[in-house]
Design goal:
Layout lengths: L1 E9 L6 E7 L2 H21 L20 E8 L13
Antiparallel strand pairs: 1-2, 1-3
């Protein structure tokens, strides 16, 4: 077994969590999470935000992350025995 890295997004509606994909390399996963963080920030800047008079903070100014990486163990595929019996 080896580890894989899940790219996870924290939803904005009810606190839901979405798995967006997985990576074999932690560095690649973290780079993708950071890229997605900046994409989301730029999208918020383009949309109206009437709930606040202040612009949102950029990802480099806050510790909160909407996208993050979770390391889990990958289970290797085990060969399954094949039954030729017809039921």
């Amino acid at each position: 077994m080896k580890n894989i890295y899940l790219l996870i997004e924290h939803g904005q509606d009810q606190g839901e969590v979405y798995v967006l994909g997985w990576f074999d390399n932690e560095k690649t996963a973290k780079e993708m999470a950071e890229e997605k963080e900046w994409e989301a920030y730029r999208a918020v800047l383009k949309s109206p935000h009437p709930w606040s008079n202040h612009p949102p903070l950029s990802p480099d100014q806050t510790e909160y992350r909407r996208f993050w990486v979770k390391e889990i163990s990958k289970i290797e595929r085990a060969p399954a025995t094949r039954s030729f019996a017809v039921h």
